[in-house]
Amino acid sequence: MPQNMSATISYLDRLTMALDDLLRCQRYCGAMLELPTGIAFSRERTVYEALFVAFVVSYSRCFCTSNTQNEGHKEKVSNKFGALRHRVLSSLSKPKAQLHQRILSLRNTAIAHSDATAHNHKHCGNSLLSTSQNPFYPYEHDEVALALALTEQLLSAIGQEQQKIGSQLSPNDP
């Protein structure tokens, strides 16, 4: 198989992984919109928060580096997928672009890592006890609806790219 064709297959694999993650995001957001946000520490709230964390993690995977099965294709696939992400992100409305940034920031500071800036601890005087904010507080329904619209816009763009690249391959290509 020609080297560039194999890299194309690796790129198609990356697009497929992104679509899988975004389809999960779509399901998680849809489920959140069907549930009440719930009262703190209630069963409803626990399920809502779990869906929120799952949404943030799945969404963010599309914006992190991904390994390819053939290590030699990683840079080419990463660059090509990065260019696609850049095109899509640059076309977002301001509210969607801001939400995108908040999702990634939340993932990086609270969901996947535990940064002190996400908790914003405050100490009164010399007290060892502190107050802090809950970095896991999930989005309300209006933001979840916007996240769903953002996810669907990304699904559309990545799906179109997958179709375009797939149509360039002959039926005999692996």
How does this structure look, described?
The protein has 174 residues and is mostly helical. The protein has one domain. Helix content is 68%, strand content 2%. It has 6 helices and 2 strands, in the order H-H-H-H-H-E-E-H. The protein has helices at 3-34, 43-61, 74-90, 94-111, 116-119, 141-168, and strands spanning 122-123, 130-131. The chain has a two-stranded antiparallel sheet. Strand 1 and strand 2 (130-131) form a beta hairpin. Helix 2 crosses helix 4 (94-111). The longest helix has 32 residues, at 3-34. The model has no long low-confidence stretch (mean pLDDT 89).
What structural category characterises the helix and strand content? mainly alpha
Beta-strand percent range = under 5%
Termini gap:
8 Å
The number of helical runs is 6
Pattern of helices and strands:
HHHHHEEH
Main beta sheet: 2 strands, antiparallel
Radius of gyration: 19 Å
Low-confidence stretches: none
Q: Please indicate the count of domains.
A: 1
On the 0-100 scale, what is the average pLDDT? 89
Relative helix content? 55-70%
In spatial order, strands of the major sheet run 1-2
What are the defining features of this structure?
single chain; 174 residues; mainly alpha; two-stranded antiparallel sheet
Summarize this, please?
This protein has one domain. It contains 6 helices and 2 strands, in the order αααααββα. A two-stranded antiparallel sheet has the order 1-2.
Describe the protein's topology:
Elements: H1 3-34, H2 43-61, H3 74-90, H4 94-111, H5 116-119, E1 122-123, E2 130-131, H6 141-168
Helix pairs in contact: 1-2, 1-3, 1-6, 2-4, 4-6
